[in-house]
Design a protein that fits this description.
The complex is a heterodimer of chains A (254) and B (417).
Chain A: H1 3-11, H2 17-30, H3 38-58, E1 73-77, H4 85-90, E2 94-99, H5 102-114, E3 120-123, H6 126-131, E4 136-142, H7 151-160, E5 162-173, H8 177-190, H9 207-216, E6 219-230, E7 235-239, E8 245-252
Chain B: E1 10-13, H1 17-28, E2 33-35, E3 50-53, H2 55-63, E4 75-77, E5 79-85, E6 93-97, E7 117-121, H3 122-135, E8 139-141, E9 146-150, E10 155-158, E11 163-165, E12 168-171, E13 184-200, E14 207-213, E15 216-222, E16 228-236, H4 237-245, H5 248-258, E17 266-282, E18 286-287, E19 290-292, E20 298-299, H6 306-327, H7 335-362, H8 382-387, H9 389-401
Parallel strand pairs in B: 1-2, 1-12, 2-8, 5-14, 12-19
Antiparallel strand pairs in B: 3-7, 4-7, 5-6, 9-10, 10-11, 13-16, 13-17, 14-15, 15-16, 17-20, 18-19
Classes of the chains: A alpha/beta (254), B alpha+beta (417).
Chain lengths: 254, 417
């Protein structure tokens, strides 16, 4: 992504009224709980709680305070409409939200502005950010690696931006038959939770492959957990089952 | 650095006790709360209307500091006696105890007796809530009533034309409001409830009595004075209005007749109050940027104040959901918060309402209105309990807490604990 796109996106000064209307509509879509990103909204509390608990323990923050992440520098890579960046900002994080899609960055910026949140949104890629020498205490690499063209290059670029005692959160989908049944046939075709074509099963990543990429990038997986949907309670929860959705935390080798 | 401004406040539409307690609870949970301008308290005799608060509701009001502000004593009810009526027979009232202590063995001491409900004066409770409300720092009174709500721009418009930011609108009003376009289930039972303070020659012994009379279900609840009772009597509309307007001698006569002198002579103190019995249940308890609590979500039989217990459970759950959401960094109107609130509350309210409405059919008398709600925290009438005994315990727990596990305020815990 070029500097030019970045400037256009972030300053907002070159956006005309039609564009604002278009991106406001897109933002409304990203943030519409009944729209196509509904599954992400439903999924959000469980991953936010996971991030919050892990970081409070790691950086010895008081979990009872309203802004435990104050003073920590975050990168939300593949931030989309800002569903993770906004909560992090509210919790005190100094956050860069990066997405390769300038449209996503415009919509996320508009939504954050309306909510009075300061988030440094940039239309750029992990590779470009890494080249500029940026460093972060926390990198959120969630529900994005299964969408990129070269997962190892992406992982390595992210890893290179991690500060010495920082950590990277990973979340993705496992390449199992169960994931195919639930995430593609179930979520896209039967339940209609996601637009068809949202996911390509062949790009899903097994926990072993994830661990291999993490280690290739010079990090180690410190912990991992499955995330399962409970249809009776109508909510997501951490679980021991990593066959479909799973999350992990990686850190620098000691 | 990260916040250009503080989070937009939570707005509360409503001026009643539910709205005020919601403001207290949300302020306790650390939110900035703005509420519609207060209206003066209704002038009512101290014991004309009472509420029967469940043990969990009592804990919640204690936690919020309301209970210690009560200026009239409350009464703990330790037993409920339900009298079923056998038609066309003399001495028809057959007592049937619904006491809660499951095994009342000899070892049960006076202290071990479970409290089923606390009877409080509505007038006194309203004053107590007002005193706490006036002393609470995180509550701002709006200069005018809310005219409309726009969830997209996260603003409300006041009747004086002002606009204000609104992180979430908590709708706690019984009246229809311009923004409320949500579907609801409604019924009018064509029945009124008469409420009054009653003097009795016999002491009440901290027992609540419930009778299915020929003219309608009737409850007598013990007050602080051992010889005073609170009457709640449901009657067909026309008869209810006539009795409310009748003079004391006629009223006393009719009351004695309805109770077949089972309690000895009863005398009404002052004028009875009357309330229509309605049923209202919103299909959805949430909409974008908005939640319904209390009378905005459900109106049920006013007997024994189950409606207020239900409202308190709404408030405790809402405070928990919003507090949890804030800890996750979510905005107050985040979909996941609203959905969690609705999931927890709609089932409880729906069950209570369904019990209310369904019982109409179980009690096949023409006085369809059920007395279940007079069952003081049981939330289930004697008739239903006898038909489905296993439901009673389930209802007992659910009638008290609404959810499992109970919300924090219902457990007597504050947000600073």
């Amino acid at each position: 992504m070029t500097q030019k796109t970045h400037a256009e996106t972030v300053s907002g000064s070159t956006i005309d009224a039609d564009e604002v209307a278009k991106f406001t509509a897109m933002a409304a879509e990203w943030w519409d709980p009944h729209g196509k990103f509904r599954p992400l909204h439903k999924f959000n509390p469980v991953r936010l709680a996971y991030i919050r608990n892990a970081l409070c323990a790691r950086f010895e923050r008081d979990p009872k305070t309203d802004q435990p992440f104050t003073g920590l520098r975050f990168l939300d890579i593949g931030c989309g409409g800002g569903l993770l960046s906004e909560p992090m900002a509210r919790l005190g994080a100094d956050i860069v939200g990066a997405d390769a899609s300038p449209a996503n960055i415009k919509t996320a910026s508009l939504h954050a502005q309306a909510g009075g949140l300061k988030i440094d949104y940039r239309a750029t890629t992990a590779e470009a950010l890494a080249q500029s020498g940026e460093k972060f205490d926390v990198i959120l690499n969630m529900e994005v690696i299964e969408h990129v063209a070269d997962p190892q290059a992406f992982m390595s670029a992210c890893a290179s931006m991690l500060s010495q005692d920082g950590c990277m959160f990973l979340a993705t989908l496992n390449r199992t038959l169960k994931a195919y049944a639930l995430a593609i046939v179930g979520a896209e075709y039967v339940l209609g939770w996601l637009p068809r074509g949202t996911h390509d099963w062949h790009k899903f990543i097994t926990p072993d492959e994830m661990q291999g990429m993490v280690e290739q990038a010079g990090l180690v997986v410190q912990q991992s957990t499955g995330v399962s949907f409970n249809p009776l309670l109508n909510k997501w929860a951490l679980s021991g089952d990593m066959a479909v959705n799973y999350m992990a935390i990686a850190e620098n080798k000691a | 650095m990260t916040r250009l401004q503080t989070a937009p406040p939570i707005l509360i539409a409503g001026q009643g006790n539910g709205a005020k307690v919601a403001a207290l609870a949300l302020a306790a949970a650390g939110f900035h709360v703005h509420i519609e301008p207060p209206r003066p308290l209704a002038d009512m005799p101290d014991w004309q209307n009472v509420l029967a608060l469940s043990p969990a509701a009592h804990l919640m009001l204690e936690t919020l500091g309301v209970w210690s502000q009560l200026d009239l004593p409350s009464t703990a009810v330790t037993n409920l006696i339900v009298h079923g009526q056998r038609p066309q027979r003399q001495s028809a009232l057959l007592p049937h105890s619904l006491g809660f202590a499951p095994n009342q063995t000899d070892e049960a001491t006076a202290e071990a007796v479970d409290v089923m409900a606390h009877i409080v004066s509505l007038a006194s409770l309203s004053r107590a809530i007002d005193r706490c409300f006036a002393a609470c720092k995180n509550i701002t009174r709006l200069p005018a009533m809310i005219a409309d709500h726009d969830p997209r721009s996260k603003t409300i418009e006041l009747e004086n034309g002002d606009q204000q930011p609104c992180g979430l609108l908590v709708d706690a009003t019984r009246a229809a409001r311009p923004w409320r376009d949500m579907a609801a289930h409604q019924a009018d039972y064509k029945t009124v409830a008469l409420t009054a303070e009653i003097a009795s020659q016999r002491p009440h012994g901290h027992m609540a009595q419930q009778i299915f009379t020929a003219s309608g279900p009737l409850a007598l609840l013990p007050l602080a004075d051992a010889h005073r009772l609170a009457l709640i009597w449901s009657l067909p509309e026309r008869r209810g209005h006539a009795l409310a307007a009748a003079d004391a001698a006629i009223f006393n006569h009719e009351l004695s007749r309805a109770t077949e002198d089972f309690f000895g002579p009863l005398e009404v103190i002052g004028k009875p109050a009357k309330q229509p019995l309605l049923l209202y249940l919103a299909h959805d308890f949430v909409a974008p940027g908005r939640v319904l609590i209390g009378d905005a979500a459900h109106i049920i039989h006013p007997l024994a104040g189950q409606g207020f217990n239900l409202t308190l459970r709404d408030i405790a759950e809402l405070a928990d959901c919003l507090h949890h959401g804030r800890h996750l960094g979510l905005a107050s109107d985040d979909f996941s918060i609203l959905e969690a609130y609705q999931t927890h509350r709609r089932s409880d309210a729906g069950l209570t309402v369904a019990a209310t409405d369904g019982l109409n059919r179980i009690f096949s008398t023409r006085h369809s209105l059920l007395t279940g709600l007079a069952s003081l925290g049981l939330g289930v009438s004697d008739g239903l309990a006898r038909r489905f005994p296993q439901m009673r315990l389930a209802f007992a727990a659910q009638a008290d807490y609404g959810t499992s596990p109970p919300a924090r305020l219902m457990r007597g815990e504050n947000f600073t604990d």
